[in-house]
Amino acid sequence: QLQLRESGPGLVQPSETLSVTCTVSGDSINSSDCYWGWIRQPPGKGLEWIGSIYYTGSTFYNPTLKSRVTISADTSKNQFSLKLSSVTAADTAVYYCARPLTRNGSYKYWGQGTLVTVSS
Amino acid sequence: QSALTQPPSVSGSPGQSVTISCTGTSSDVGSYNSVSWYQQPPDTAPKLIIHEVSHRPSGVPDRFSGSKSGNTASLTISGLQAEDEADYYCSSYTSSTTWVFGGGTKVTVL
After folding, report:
1. Residue B94: which residues within 8 A CB-CB, separation 6 or more?
2. Any bridge partners for residue B10, and if so which?
3. pLDDT (tens digit per residue) in B56-106
4. Would you call B23 exposed, middle or buried from its count of C-beta atoms within 10 A (0-12, 13-18, 19+)?
5. Which of A52, A83, B66, B99 has the fewest beta carbons under 10 Å from its own?
6. Can you tell me the distance from the alpha carbon of A53 to that of A80, in angstroms, rounded to the nearest whole number?
């Protein structure tokens, strides 16, 4: 059974870099022909697509976040990660990782999400 | 990229039907059949209920249906039930090879 689990620091200082990792079980990111995704949701607000990665390293990013976002994959650990630099309070959100139903399609499988708060 | 436009809230009595609209542009909803709908009860991760405009993943009740006309997609919940009370989000693939979500609609069962 496919499971995704996000892990993150919980609290990040303003201007620093936020890092969140998604650990995948029940599937292999380097044999699944799909783009694994990151989506976030600020408290009380809507969903925002951050970006996605193919196991080869091919990435797509939200243009509004592109200058600050890096998504990478570690196939040996069956993980993919998100780094967001120069964070502000506006980056406080629940960060979800997800797997699409098809190659680059709708997100069928989601992690439970991890709340990252940006505050001093 | 701009978020897709959804009404903030809709409501209906049990057994009634409600429809949520999702308006985009010719660069997203209008050009692709990669339109999805997600259901999100409070404090839970989103759940995919419609993909590719009108297809339901296995296990999703046929009370949920999707359609699209031009730059606007729609989700209809027929035979509204108390358990359908949740936030609903549309999403579309875009010409920039990215995904964009709508602002979300809160469905209230009266």
Report:
1. B1, B27, B28, B32, B100
2. B107
3. 999 999 999 999 999 999 999 999 999 999 999 999 999 989 999 999 999
4. middle
5. A83
6. 8
Residue with tokens 């609209």: B21
Of the candidates A37, A105, A110, which has its C-beta nearest B34's C-beta?
A: A105
Q: How many residues are present in chain B?
A: 110
Q: What is the C-alpha to C-alpha distance for residues A66 and A60, in angstroms, rounded to an integer?
A: 9
Residues of A (33-52) whose Cβ lies below 8 Å from B: 37, 39, 46-49, 51-52
> How far apart (Å, rounded) are the C-alpha atoms in residues B89 and B100?
10
DSSP SS3 for B82: helix
pLDDT > 70 fraction of chain B, expressed in percent and rounded: 100
A39 contacts in B (CB within 8 Å)?
46, 101
**B2 membership: H or E segment, kind and range:** none
Residues A84 and B4: their CA atoms lie apart, in Å, by 24
Amino acid in position B46: P
Contact B77, B86 (CB under 8 A): no
d(C-alpha B103, C-alpha B100), whole Å: 10
